[in-house]
Design goal:
alpha/beta, Rossmann fold, 2 domains, 7-stranded mixed sheet, about 10% strand, globular
Length: about 280
């Protein structure tokens, strides 16, 4: 674990086993919706499942960290506590894809690594702004312009946090509740961490893929739409995964698609799509 993450851990082991370990980069959701790591933990008998949660770290005492620092922290924690060798799978969902690829590149120096990207998204400035607007809508307040995202990223996150806090305090007051109440504080911290991670992805420079040993697999609703920055489309495997949807992205069926890749099911080859 690197000192950049302070005393916050980014990696959590959910299940044990003797098969290849699986690191799942995802967000700690602010809902009761299932998490992919939990679903995999319930289905992937024998595979130790690790959860990599950048939003959990960025909701703590560090307002902003580059994606590479977050990846280094995850790898450091894994190497300190995980199996001594062998193949490792890295699963990245949606905007966590960049983090999963950084983790893979760091691990490939000592392990065979496969990165599985689920509906990969590469946040740009517009993506961050739209998610800021989404956060405001969660507080049931009128739309407000997103603060400037350029310049010092820590300051940019602080600007977004201030706007969210003002609106959250107003929401709390309208309900006769103190805005400093624990639930409101946790809600603000989660949204700040979520936006900070998206901004970090936006600021992340392209990964150097020269001499890379990582096997990259992408699952998406349409293989024509998926791309991995820095890699030509013939440099990674692409599969159609109809179970991916914007409305309900995490399902047992999606977990089954991931497990099919882990287990190299005979029914799924590089020339076939997942049905």
């Amino acid at each position: 674990m690197t000192s950049a993450v302070s005393n916050q851990t980014i990696l959590r082991q959910l299940t044990e086993g003797d098969a290849e370990p699986v690191l799942v980069a995802e967000f700690r959701a602010w809902t009761t919706a299932p998490r992919l790591s939990r679903l995999l933990g319930g289905q992937a008998g024998g595979h130790p499942i690790y959860q990599v949660d950048p939003v959990g770290v960025l909701s703590g005492d560090r307002r902003y960290l580059p994606v590479r620092d977050l990846a280094a922290a995850a790898v450091g924690e894994f190497l300190a506590s995980g199996p001594a060798g062998g193949h490792v799978f890295i699963v990245g969902h949606c905007s966590a894809s960049a983090l999963s690829l950084h983790v893979a590149r760091l691990l490939e120096a000592s392990r065979d690594v496969t990165a599985i990207l689920l509906g990969p998204v590469w946040p740009d400035e517009e993506h961050v702004r739209s998610r800021f607007a989404e956060a405001l809508s969660n507080f049931r307040v009128p739309d407000r312009p997103c603060p400037a995202l350029d310049g010092d990223p820590d300051t940019a996150v602080a600007r977004m946090e201030q706007v969210l806090k003002e609106e959250l305090d107003a929401l709390a007051a309208s309900r006769g509740v103190n805005g400093a109440a624990k639930a409101f504080g946790e809600l603000l911290a989660w949204h700040r961490g979520w936006l900070a991670f998206l901004l970090a992805c936006h600021n992340d420079p392209p990964i150097a893929w020269e001499n890379a040993a990582t096997e990259v697999i992408a699952l998406s609703r349409s293989t024509a739409d998926v791309n991995v920055p820095g890699l030509s489309q013939d440099a990674y495997q692409r599969y159609q995964a109809p179970v991916l949807s914007e409305e309900d992205p995490i399902t047992p069926e999606l977990a089954a698609c991931v497990l099919a890749q882990l287990r190299r099911s005979p029914s799924i080859t590089a020339k076939e799509t997942i049905q």
